[in-house]
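# step 3/5: fold
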Amino acid sequence: MAGEKILIVEDNLDNMKLFVSILEIEGYRVLQASSPLQVSDLVEKEHPALVLMDIQLPEMDGVSLMRGWGPGDP
């Protein structure tokens, strides 16, 4: 739904700009993270409705990061 917060986790600046532009045009509020180290804090503080995660990040792959969350976690 438009107006919802969406967190994008992407280390490629061109991809991030594209995703942000498309989502903002559709009325979403976009949060941005370029590193998996930022994700937990942003999720905990901002409670996004959706996280779009790059699965090939330099510090940790997105799949491993998402597997670390369970019910009740950020």
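# step 4/5: annotate
The chain has three helices and three strands.
# step 5/5: archive (pending)
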